[in-house]
Amino acid sequence: MKPSLTTRELSTQPASWRRAATAAAHAPGLPAPGERVAVTGCGTSWFMAQAYAALREAAGHGETDAFASSEFPAGRTYDRVVAITRSGTTTEVLHLLDTLRGRTPTLALTADPHTPVMHTATEVAVLDWADEESVVQTRFATTALAYLRTGIDGAATVEKAAADAEEALAEELPMAALIAEQWTFLGRGWTYGLAQEAALKMREAAGAWTEAYPAMEYRHGPVAITAPGRVTWAFGPLPDGLPTEVAATGGTLVHAEGRDPMADLVRAQRLAVTLAQARGLNPDAPRNLTRSVILPG
Length: 297
What we know:
The chain is 42% helix and 15% strand. With 297 residues, it is of the alpha/beta class. It is globular and about 55 Å long.
């Protein structure tokens, strides 16, 4: 079977992340330590915003919130707002940036330098090498996160993630995940955003029954869905007792010990595309979706 466009795009992520780390090393507009920051986006970009916000605050760089652009509390005061928008045309993002203009410095990460976001944000980081033809976001989203991670931990962390992603691209997918009927993705801290994104990819590309939760919330209800033929996929460190709890249900735990969680997201992307093709779906153009949501009016 001919590789899908999404497959070809997601396979370039290691190189794209390395380029992002180089670009971010001396880039203007990245949040400075101590700034109170909000990060925003829609869909996949919102989940990357969640991951970055948790990473930045946990690193001691300052209070960092994440909001879907449509739910942004415009009355709050921030030192800087970071917006992630692949297309640069998403209505909710542009409306928010226009609202903040003149009172809050903003940084937009986009893939297209010929879109309205270039004129609505204070600073713009153009990651055009990470742009995609596919409706489904893979490469741009993680490249934006790699760019922002560089501002927290430096290029070495991104290099480790890229090397791990090369391994994730080369290895076989877990058979239990390929034949499962249901998938629950878990994460802690910044990896909860990745779990949300993994579940979204599975729903978008494969129309799959997936859920995502903070890992410590798993035992507070979501464990009830786990059973034989179902997978619990965890990003990042495992909570104590989680493997035992999953095993007791008859379900299968998927966890990449020691691998950078962003690289493990690449593996989940591959799973989504593989399942889509097995179900006769086109992962490049999912049902009911468009590349950018542009609202009338």
